[in-house]
């Protein structure tokens, strides 16, 4: 199973899948073969080996990062993580709505001509990496990643709004905020990662110290009404470990 895909959330994908199921996949630029014996679903790394037509090069840096057989990759799932995720995917509510059987073409149909904004801490950033691999053949590797805007001023404003002066209680340090980045889908649309560790910056009131709010900056500059926002902030940035409901390990979710 491919590395970042071991942490991709199956709990918000059903919303996209429900709407995408009504969209035709016949115009999808890539096609995939059926899963063989003991092969993982496409959403868990099967994309790399099962692409039949319209595949992006498998020899470039982007594909190499998504190769589930490269266990030396820093973010490759360990066997116990793969087992845990597959067990979670078999849960009744996930099996019933078909989240584990989602295909890249189904997701592409719903993302065309809109931006999927993935906003949050490192776990949401891994969601971005996971989707970059899941949609491996549906974006142009030659273009690589890019900034959300062609305007340096807009990109700077976005970074400043996402950055925080608050200390993350995970390590008792102020987080280092990464610059936002996106990849563009072949059929139109894009997926963007905005690294923002704590939620105060996302929807701060105009009079709050964190203003201008990240959401307001996006709405005023880059986001459109048809865009999708997926937002997640880990409780371990707000509470000292052990955070409520979490074990006492240093990386509680990654270790489970």
SSE map:
Blueprint: H1 13-20, E1 31-32, H2 47-50, E2 51-53, H3 61-64, H4 79-89, H5 92-97, H6 104-111, E3 115-120, H7 122-134, H8 152-162, E4 181-184, E5 190-195, H9 214-221, E6 228-232
Parallel strand pairs: 3-5, 3-6
Antiparallel strand pairs: 1-2, 4-5
Helix pairs in contact: 1-6, 8-9
Q: Can you characterise this structure?
A:
With 256 residues, the chain is of the alpha/beta class. It contains 9 helices and 6 strands. It has helices spanning 13-20, 47-50, 61-64, 79-89, 92-97, 104-111, 122-134, 152-162, 214-221, and strands at residues 31-32, 51-53, 115-120, 181-184, 190-195, 228-232. The protein has a 4-stranded mixed beta sheet, with helices on both faces. Helix 1 crosses helix 6 (104-111) and helix 8 runs antiparallel to helix 9. The chain is globular and about 60 Å long. The two termini are 15 Å apart. The model is unreliable at 1-8, 18-23 and 249-256 (pLDDT under 50).
The N- and C-terminal alpha carbons lie at a distance of: 15 Å
What order do the SSEs take from the amino end to the carboxyl end, as H and E? HEHEHHHHEHHEEHE
Structural class: alpha/beta
Report the biggest beta sheet as strand number plus sense, adding barrel if it closes. 4 strands, mixed
Compute the CA-based radius of gyration: 18 Å
- Poorly predicted spans: 1-8, 18-23, 249-256
- Classify the helix fraction into a percent range: 25-40%
How does the overall form come out from the CA principal axes? globular
Mean pLDDT: 78
The strand order across the widest sheet is 4-5-3-6
Q: What is the number of E strands?
A: 6
* Beta-strand content: 5-15%
Tally of DSSP helical segments: 9
